[in-house]
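dude i think i finally got it to work??
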Amino acid sequence: MNWNALTLLTLAIFGFLGLLITLLIGFLRQLPELFQAMREAKNALRNRSDQ
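look at this
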């Protein structure tokens, strides 16, 4: 393995890790909204069945 291949492999790995971290942070930031929407849907279904 020469230095060019090693450099490209290192850049690819860190690029992939950066993308993965960005996606994970975005997903974690949306979790509270998801839980709130699930709670509202559950309450709406519960209120609908009570009527």
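Helices lie at 3-50.
im so relieved honestly
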